[in-house]
Specification:
Structural class: mainly beta
Number of strands: 6
Number of helices: 1
Length: 84
């Protein structure tokens, strides 16, 4: 299990715990399962997000259908720790 914390441009200083999904990830897309149900993007629906490494764009992701629609947000940081 690889758990990290992410922060996005729409929700700065609101960190979400995520677990990397190795099976769903590729060189073009890093897929994470949301562990923080109270994080704003999690409350908007969906249990997964995908991050495009080249652009740092954050997308809603479905294991059955892949990336869903346009980017939701922009990644600010991802790492093993969250600070408040």
């Amino acid at each position: 299990m690889s758990i990290a914390f992410i922060e996005t441009a729409r929700f700065p200083s609101q960190f979400a715990a995520v677990e990397w999904s190795a099976a769903a990830s590729s060189p073009e897309l890093a897929v994470y399962r949301l562990l923080s149900g109270n994080w704003p993007l999690a409350q908007e629906g969906g249990d997964y997000i995908a991050i495009e490494p080249a652009s740092q764009a954050v997308y809603r992701y479905s294991p059955q259908g892949g990336v869903q629609g346009e980017p939701l947000d922009q990644l600010l940081s991802i790492g093993p720790h969250a600070w408040n």
